[in-house]
Amino acid sequence: METSRLTVVSNRLAIAVGQEESGQWTIKPGSGGLVTALGPVLRDRGGQWIGWIGAIGQHPMDEGFLDDLLDHGSRETGYALKPVHLTAEEIQKYYHGFSNEILWPLFHDLPTRCNFDPSYWQVYERVNAKFAQTVAANTGTGDYVWVHDYHLIMVAHYLKTVGVERQTGFFLHIPFPPLDGFIKLPWRFQILHALLRYDLVGFQTMRDRRNFMDCVRMLMPKTRVVGQGHIVRCLTPEQEVLVGAFPISIDFRQFAEIAASQEVQDQAWIIHANLPERQLILGIDRLDYTKGIPLRLKAFANALERYPELRGKVTLIQVVVPSREEVPEYEALKREIERLVGEINGRFSQVEWTPIHYIYRPLSRVELLAYYRTCEIALITPLKDGMNLVAKEFCACSIENNGVLILSEFAGAAAQLQNGALLVNPFDIVGVADAIRRAYSMDENSRRSRMARMRRSIQRHDIFHWVNAFFRAGLHKDLNQFPRVELFLPTAEPSASCSIADEEP
After folding, report:
1. For the whole prediction, is pTM greater than 0.85?
2. Which residues are catalytically annotated?
């Protein structure tokens, strides 16, 4: 089938529409790894993005004004934006409920944090059907529909239910759990069946694909698995499904070029001027219990306790990006982090040295890259992660090849970066502390050779390699075979009350 256009479907659009206290509507760039990864692809090759527009404040927005906002957003992104509108109940039960209180903790091997509320499943089905309707209305038979992540597992199922035939691919950005964890899900059969309605299902790592195949073999006896290697085939009673591992990546060239810019260099100089004569350790995470921030802080304290020579010679810059602050569990996590930071600083601080600099806010793109470039050590220790693009971004921005990456062995990125990173078990406080000491004392030649290996690997397997690998498997064509489509957008300027935030994701 000749493919004419790429359509990306995700929970959120690549922009976020919000309302300030003054009542002014704003558009902000989307955040997260998916926007970072796919933005350049859609911008360079043309395409469209379908997703929820996000919460739009207390008061309804005029439909025409919303269209103006989306037109402006399309000009900013370079591709068409098609919104899916959700009710308050749908946001609560589909997004906060089934997606983030069931699938998120379960797929990260934390079933005790799950809330298996039956009403969540009913609304999850309803919203996935709504997304499928939007896909059907905005795509043609020649389009390739690429659905992303755990929020929208059921989209292909509902497309086929209403008789809409599209070429479809699905990519799971988070880990897929092993069988003994997955079977705890009351709707395990429906989820597996829905995944097997796509033409191609992609996972971050071979471990995730293996977990999925184990579940299929045990729970779907009428499905037969054929083949070995990178791509295998699942033969179901309805169709043939390709299943593979496609580790996501970043736009290496863009990160390296911006990191070398004068603006980033100036900001990096300010950071080091304010924290002189010491090695800087960077931790940067979204506020989430899967990121292992409390254990990381305890490991840093253990390193200071057992290796006194580190005192005054290293500083941990821990950046936490706010997330789901209205959820009590996340607020409790924030309090625990702040308690640990205060306790460690109170215990080890000296007149001219504070062990931890704690930042609780989003960073601009320039700030983020300045920290990447300035810090000699990155401490990235999630309890479990699908990939973790922060690790790759840090390497791309280490343009002097002098950085050391300490990385959790449970991050998907560990499979690719194991030959250069110091891999650690985030639950092993002493082991992480020893890795901090090892990174601090690593000689220059070892630093350079390790970082050079990682940077070469990331440059070779960048975002475009990721997309090409997925398309070759699903469509037998490369990215450059998609037509370069000029996106014809309205020329009228948006209303004066529309402002574009200059903060990058």
Report:
1. yes
2. 173, 385
